[in-house]
Amino acid sequence: MLLPLAILYYKQNQFDKAKDYLNRLAKVNRDTKKFMRLEAKHDGYSLRMEQGMYGYRPGTIEELVDAYLNSTYLFNATPYFSQWAYQYLRTQTASKKKKPKNEE
Fold it and tell me: According to DSSP H, which parts of the chain are helical?
């Protein structure tokens, strides 16, 4: 439910709430950034290759692909969400890497 909520808040121009849900999603699903990258490139083939043969494993890209394939209308209705989300997640990752560790 975190992904559709992020999309809906993005669609309503409530970007802070959309970012909050993206952060929550990224915490529980380590493949969120990879999924957004593939979706932003409209790489349907690669997305389908990530799909599990027997359903999906929670907390993986398989779960996100399943959500995507079962609600493509939501992604089609917000064509720039994936690019926006991927750029946001990239900046989050970059800012975490740049933070110096506290030396005690």
Answer: 2-11, 15-28, 32-40, 44-49, 61-70, 72-77, 81-98
- DSSP code at position 99: S
Interatomic CA distance for residues 30 and 22, integer angstroms = 11
| pLDDT for res 97 | 66
Residue 55 phi, psi (nearest 5): 100, -140
At position 47, the amino acid (one-letter code) is L
How far apart, in Å, are the Cα atoms of 20 and each of 26, 54, 56, 100?
10, 31, 25, 24
Cα gap 83→79, rounded to integer Å: 8
DSSP state at residue 102: P
Are 81 and 7 in contact by the 8 Å Cβ rule? The answer is yes
pTM score of the predicted model = 0.82
